[in-house]
Amino acid sequence: MSELFDEVDEEVRREQLKKLWDKYSLYFIALMVLIVAAVGGWRGYQYLEAKKAAEAGATFEKAVELSEQGKHAEAETAFADLAAKAPSGYRILSRLRAAAEVSARDPKAAAKMFDDIVADRSVGSEWQDLAKIRAASLLVDSASYADIQQRLETSAEPKSTFRHSARELLALSAWRNNDMTAARKWVDAIAEDGETPPSLRSRAEALQALLPPVAKS
């Protein structure tokens, strides 16, 4: 008797499933088609992005070769084209390299290009800090200490990635602008940082030797 009831229950379940399938089968099939299409679209997108990145990488390497061969005008054009069209990673690298190529013939124009990178909020903070350093290094011989200080003081803070370079440029700018108090401040900051690279520490010691002695109170 229990077997009979089991068979009836099974038949009822099959009938209910059939009714559900008849009612919702089109929706289910449409959902499956959408899922397959979405997966296929995503894979296609990944393939195209990988292809673009590979092409940009090859073009970037060729531009670097042009620069190393002394063909700076051609390299500048190639980097500028990549900066406009390449995927995001190569775009920022190309902007930095394009500005570096320009620096050989027009330091002020190159500094402006680096400043544009600093002002671009879509660029990561470390790239912005690097651009600050590059711009300041082009202007350190001509800009006022106040200008270099405004550009680099935040980059010279203890946890900043490029603090060593920022401090050196600030010390050099202060010395060139005859602000010996500021120059000593940054030379001391270089000396007191245990992570200062040895070569930079040596240059800071050489600059310190040029500073006048501290007046005794």
Gist of the model:
It holds the Pfam family TPR_21. This protein has 217 residues and is mostly helical.
Q: Would you kindly provide a written description of the structure presented here, covering whatever features stand out?
A:
With 217 residues, this protein is mostly helical. The chain has nine helices and no strands. The chain is elongated, with a radius of gyration of 31 Å. Pfam families: TPR_21. This is Tetratricopeptide repeat protein. Keywords: Membrane, Transmembrane, Transmembrane helix.
Overall pLDDT score: 84
Question: What level of helicity do the residues show?
Answer: over 70%
Q: What would the principal axes of the Cα set say about the shape? A: elongated
Biggest β-sheet, characterized? none
Radius of gyration based on Cα positions: 31 Å
The first-to-last residue Cα distance is: 112 Å
Instruction: List unreliable stretches of 5+ residues.
Output: none
Q: How many individual β-strands? A: 0
Count helical runs.
9
Structure classification: mainly alpha
Helix and strand succession?
HHHHHHHHH
Transmembrane segments: 24-42
Pfam families: TPR_21
Domain Ancillary SecYEG translocon subunit/Cell division coordinator CpoB TPR: 18-170
Keywords: Membrane, Transmembrane, Transmembrane helix
Topology record:
Elements: H1 2-68, H2 72-85, H3 88-103, H4 107-119, H5 125-139, H6 145-152, H7 163-176, H8 180-192, H9 198-210
Helix pairs in contact: 1-2, 2-3, 3-4, 3-5, 4-5, 6-7, 7-8, 8-9
